[in-house]
Amino acid sequence: MTVMRRALEFLFTRALRSRIGVALGIAVVVFGIIGAARLVSGPDQSATGLTTRPREPITTVDPRTGDDGANLTPEPPSPRTRSGALTPERTAERFATAWLGGGPDAKRWQDAMRPFSTPTLIEHLRGADPAGVPATQVTGKPTLQPRTATITEVTLPLDFGRLRLTLVSPDGRWLVDTVDWERE
After folding, report:
1. H-run or E-run covering 140
2. Where are the alpha helices (DSSP H) in the chain?
3. Mean pLDDT score, 13-33
């Protein structure tokens, strides 16, 4: 009896109070839980895989309805120009010439762009300095990308980048509404 008593006393006073004893105790508890779970779950069925998976792909659209992708959107209509008015390309070229031309002062520079700009753009350019224009000349033809019949985007290649202009035509006369600069 004394041997058993000494063994229990050693276990509770020394072994379980050390780090190794605590780690061994935790390992025994974890392996006990795993073993009990395996006994309760029954035989191993890992070879069969997921048993509730569908045999066919899950679809949310009737496959007989055809393609419903975004590629079926119609092409945007060609920009409409009032007779006698400038086309979007010509308006963009003339605006770019005025924008790149600078001028002796900011007022004359803005006055040169005014016939090709919306009032909103003129207001945004108020206080802008023509010396801050990062290019000096147009180096190629404008490319047109219509958005609607009255909104289009024109990109002009310049010597140090690209000038992207958004033009609007609320009444058939094209005007530049936004200016964006991309450095190459």
Report:
1. none
2. 2-10, 19-41, 88-101, 106-113, 119-125
3. 82
Rounded to two decimals, the pTM is 0.58
Q: Which two tokens stand for residue 182?
A: 């991309």
Cα–Cα–Cα angle for 93, 95, 101, rounded to 5 degrees: 100
Report residue 179 as tokens.
């200016």
Q: Kindly state the DSSP code that residue 65 receives in the 8-state scheme.
A: G
The rounded mean pLDDT for the chain is 81
Distance CA 113, CA 142 (A): 18
**Cα torsion angle, 11, 14, 16, 19, sign:** negative
The CA distances from residue 139 to 9, 143, 182, in Å, are 94, 12, 14
Distance CA 15, CA 12 (A): 6
Sequence-separated (6 or more) residues with CB below 8 Å from residue 128: 106, 110
Q: What is the pLDDT of residues 85-97, one digit of tens each?
A: 888 899 999 999 9
**Of 8-12, 88-92, 156-160, 168-172, the least confident:** 8-12
The mean per-residue pLDDT over the stretch 135-146 comes to 88
